[in-house]
Amino acid sequence: FAAEGPVFCSGHDLKELSTEDDVKHHSQVFELCAEVMTLIQKLPVPVIAKVNGLATAAGCQLVASCDIAVASEKSQFATPGVNIGLFCSTPGVALGRSLPRKVALEMLFTGEPLSAHEALMHGLVSKVVPEDKLEEETMKISQKICDSSKSVLALGKATFYRQITQDLDTAYKITTKVMVDNLTLRDGQEGIEAFVQKRKPVWTH
Question: How crowded is residue 57: how many other Cβ atoms within 10 Å of its Cβ?
Answer without folding.
Answer: 22
